[in-house]
Amino acid sequence: DLIDRIADETRFKRNDVRLIVQTFLDDVIKELSEGNRLEFRNFGVFELNERAPRMAQNPKTLERVPVPARRTVKFKPGKIMKSAVDFPRDLTDMPVVETVTPSAPQVASV
Q1: What pLDDT, in 10s, does the model give residues 44-101?
Q2: How many angstroms separate the CA atoms of 56 and 102, rounded?
Q3: What count of other Cβ atoms lies within 10 Å of the Cβ of residue 36?
Q4: Rounded to whole angstroms, how far apart are CA atoms 23 and 31?
Q5: What are the residues whose beta carbons fall under 8 Å from the beta carbon of 49, sequence distance 6 or more?
Q6: Contacts of 99 (CB under 8 A, 6+ apart)
Q7: Distance between CA 7 and CA 71 in Å, rounded?
Q8: Cβ neighbours around 17 below 10 Å, total
Q9: Would you say 74 and 51 are in contact if contact means Cβ atoms under 8 Å apart?
Q10: Model confidence over 9-21: pLDDT tens digits?
Q11: Alpha-carbon distance 3 to 21, whole Å?
């Protein structure tokens, strides 16, 4: 379990680690819902992707149905993540991930 592993490595209490991780994830969701792009250096970038409305086809009935516009989350992995996934290795020598949040919110239209 990720929480247990972080607690063991940092010697923080398990409940403290759980609170920190959950708060972090809640803040990521909040920032994305406000239209902000989140960049975690050496890890990757989360950003919103605006999908235009379109027409689709029901494969069973062949009926054309409208699909409304929507926002989706796009993740682009960073160089270190790509390298670690392509060539698994010991990650203990990897640099610490830094976070960067834009100074002004970039709210996406709905």
Answers
A1: 999 999 999 999 999 999 999 999 999 999 999 999 998 888 876 665 555 555 555 5
A2: 36
A3: 19
A4: 12
A5: 71, 72, 73, 74
A6: 38, 39, 40, 41
A7: 35
A8: 19
A9: no
A10: 999 999 999 999 9
A11: 8
Residues forming beta bridges with residue 58, ordered by sequence position:
none
Closest CA relative to residue 32, chosen from 78, 72, 77, 88: 72
Backbone angles phi, psi at 107, to 5 degrees: -75, 130
Structure tokens at 110: 């709905």
Domains in the chain (CATH in brackets) are 2-100 (4.10.520.10)
Q: Phi and psi dihedrals of 44, rounded to 5? A: 160, -175
pTM of the entire structure?
0.67
Contact 43, 80 (CB under 8 A): yes
Tokens of 43: 């890890």
* Interstrand relation of 44-51 and 98-100 (parallel, antiparallel or unpaired): unpaired
Q: For residues 62 and 74, give the distance between their C-alpha atoms in angstroms, rounded to a whole number.
A: 30
